[in-house]
C-alpha cells in the first residue's frame, strides 16, 4: 500500500472521519474492517483518524484505532501536531495516558517548537500536563527484571515490576499515599522486596541524571520514592506495628495547629539528600511553602491548593467529605478520616472556634487571602519553569486505595461522621 498522502482519501476513509465526528464506535469498527480504509490516512490538513478521535476526546475510538495499527507518532500534520498533542489539548487524561502507553514520544515538537506538555499547559489542561510529565514506560522498568551481564538473578524480581510501576506512575506524591500503595501489595510489604525496589529506584535516578537529555525532575521523583521505600523498610524492621506506625508518624500533627512536623522534616530530608542537588529546589525550602508543596509543584507542575480539595490524610485530589464538626478538613474516604482522627481530634475543637471567629471578620480574611495568592503564584511560576525541562512523562494514578464500606461508628472516641460538601 502506498504512503498516505494528504487529502487523498477514499470515500470510505471520508466516512471514517465523519463517524469519528458524530458516530459511534460500532460504526467505526465496521468501517475499519473494510480493505479500502488505511488506518493512517491523512486528511487535507495532515490529520489521521487517531488525531481526530483524540481531539474529539473519544477514548473508545482511540483504543480501536490503535488496535488497528494507528501510528501514534505520525507527524504529518501541517503544524506538526501529534496525536498526543491533540489528546493534551482535549483535556482527557485517559486518552493522554493511552497515547503514552502506545509509545507516543513526549519530546516531539510542533512547528513552533512546543511539546505536547507545553501545548496542554498553554490551554490550561494541567491534569494532562501532569500525566505527560510523569510518564515512565513499564518497559524501562522491566529491563531490570532480566539478569544483565554476569548477574545470576535480575535486580528486580518480575513479580515486583507491576506494583513498583504503579508507585512510579503516581501523581500524588503524598508520602502517606505512597505508603498506602506499598501496603496495598503484600509482595511489597517485605524487607527483601523493599530493598530490591529502592535499589532499582536509585539506579533509575542515576540513569535519569546521566542520560543525554538529563531529566532532573524525573530523577528527583525516583529519589523521593526510594526514600519513602527505605523509610517503609526501616519501620518494617524496627516497629511491631510496622507500616501503620509509619502512617501515624507521618500524620501526627503538632499540638498548636496540627501541622505534620515529622512529614515535613521527612520530605525536606529527602530533597536535601538528593545526590544531584537541585539548588533552586533547595532555595525554595527556605521559604513559606511546605516541603510537600515545593516537591509537588516541581514534579507535577501543579499547585497543591488551588481548584481542588485535597485529602488531609493521603493528599488525593477531589476529596469531597468534610469533618462534620469543624468543616475545616477534607477527606477522600472514611478510611482516611479514621486514620487522621487520632491527631485531628486534638485541634478539631479549636478549628470549630476559629471558623466561628472568621465568619465575624470576613473582610479582613479576604485581604489576607489576596496577599497569599500572590506569593503562591510567584512560587508556582518559578517552579513551572523548572518543570518545563522535564522530558519523560507518566500516567495518572488510580484513586485512593480505600473502601468506603466499614463506616466508623459515631462513638465518642471515634471520628465524627463526614458530610458531603456542597461548595
Ligand atoms: Zn485520602
Ligand atoms: Zn474536625
TrEMBL record:
Q: Which Pfam families match?
A: Ank_2, zf-MYND
Q: Which UniProt keywords apply?
A: ANK repeat, Cell projection, Cilium, Metal-binding, Repeat, Zinc, Zinc-finger
GO terms (molecular function) for this protein are: zinc ion binding
Q: Does the keyword Lipoprotein apply?
A: no
Q: Among its keywords, does the record have Zinc-finger?
A: yes
- Subcellular localization, as worded in the UniProt entry: Cell projection, Cilium
Q: Which GO terms describe its cellular component?
A: cilium
MYND-type domain sequence ranges: 311-348
Q: Which residues form a coiled coil?
A: none
> Where does this protein chiefly localize?
other
Stretches that traverse the bilayer: none
ANK repeats sit at: 45-77, 79-111
Question: What is the protein name stated in its UniProt record?
Answer: Ankyrin repeat and MYND domain-containing protein 2-like isoform X2
What organism, scientifically named, is this protein from? Answer: Parambassis ranga
Which lineage do the record's taxonomy fields give for this organism? Answer: Eukaryota, Metazoa, Chordata, Craniata, Vertebrata
Amino acid at each position: 500500500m502506498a504512503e498516505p498522502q494528504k487529502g487523498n482519501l477514499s470515500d470510505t476513509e471520508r466516512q471514517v472521519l465523519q463517524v469519528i465526528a458524530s458516530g459511534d464506535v460500532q460504526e467505526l469498527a465496521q468501517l475499519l474492517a473494510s480493505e479500502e480504509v488505511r488506518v493512517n490516512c491523512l486528511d487535507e490538513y495532515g490529520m489521521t483518524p487517531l488525531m481526530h478521535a483524540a481531539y474529539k476526546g473519544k477514548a473508545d475510538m482511540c483504543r480501536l484505532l490503535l488496535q488497528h495499527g494507528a501510528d501514534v507518532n505520525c507527524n504529518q500534520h501541517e503544524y506538526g501536531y501529534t496525536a498526543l498533542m491533540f489528546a493534551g489539548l482535549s483535556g482527557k487524561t485517559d486518552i493522554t495516558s493511552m497515547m503514552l502507553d502506545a509509545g507516543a514520544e513526549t519530546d516531539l515538537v510542533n512547528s513552533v517548537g512546543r511539546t505536547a506538555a507545553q501545548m496542554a499547559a498553554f490551554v490550561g489542561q494541567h491534569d494532562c500536563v501532569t500525566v505527560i510529565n510523569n510518564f515512565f514506560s513499564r518497559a524501562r522498568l522491566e529491563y531490570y527484571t532480566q539478569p544483565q551481564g554476569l548477574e545470576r538473578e535480575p535486580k528486580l524480581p518480575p513479580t515486583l515490576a507491576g506494583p513498583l510501576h504503579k508507585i512510579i506512575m503516581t501523581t500524588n506524591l503524598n508520602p502517606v499515599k505512597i505508603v498506602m500503595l506499598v501496603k496495598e501489595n503484600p509482595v511489597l510489604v517485605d524487607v527483601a522486596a523493599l530493598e530490591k525496589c529502592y535499589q532499582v529506584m536509585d539506579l533509575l535516578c542515576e540513569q535519569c541524571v546521566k542520560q543525554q537529555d538529563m531529566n532532573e525532575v524525573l530523577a528527583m521523583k525516583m529519589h523521593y520514592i526510594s526514600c519513602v521505600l527505605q523509610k517503609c523498610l526501616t519501620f518494617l524492621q524496627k516497629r511491631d506495628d510496622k507500616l501503620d506506625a509509619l502512617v501515624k508518624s507521618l500524620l501526627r500533627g503538632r499540638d498548636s495547629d496540627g501541622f505534620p512536623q515529622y512529614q515535613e522534616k521527612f520530605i525536606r530530608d529527602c530533597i536535601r539528600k538528593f545526590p544531584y542537588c537541585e539548588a533552586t529546589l533547595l532555595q525554595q525550602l527556605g521559604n513559606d511553602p511546605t516541603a510537600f508543596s515545593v516537591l509537588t509543584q516541581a514534579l507535577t507542575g501543579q499547585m497543591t491548593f488551588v481548584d481542588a480539595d485535597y485529602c488531609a490524610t493521603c493528599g488525593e485530589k477531589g476529596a469531597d467529605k468534610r469533618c462534620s464538626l469543624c468543616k475545616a478538613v477534607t477527606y477522600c474516604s472514611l478510611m482516611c478520616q479514621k486514620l487522621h482522627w487520632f491527631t485531628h481530634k486534638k485541634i478539631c475543637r479549636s478549628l470549630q472556634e476559629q471558623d466561628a471567629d472568621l465568619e465575624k471578620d470576613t473582610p479582613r480574611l479576604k485581604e489576607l487571602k489576596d496577599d497569599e495568592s500572590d506569593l503562591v503564584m510567584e512560587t508556582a511560576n518559578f517552579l513551572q519553569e523548572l518543570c518545563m525541562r522535564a522530558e519523560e512523562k507518566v500516567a495518572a494514578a488510580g484513586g485512593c486505595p480505600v473502601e468506603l464500606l466499614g463506616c466508623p461508628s459515631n462513638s465518642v472516641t471515634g471520628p465524627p461522621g463526614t458530610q458531603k460538601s456542597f461548595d
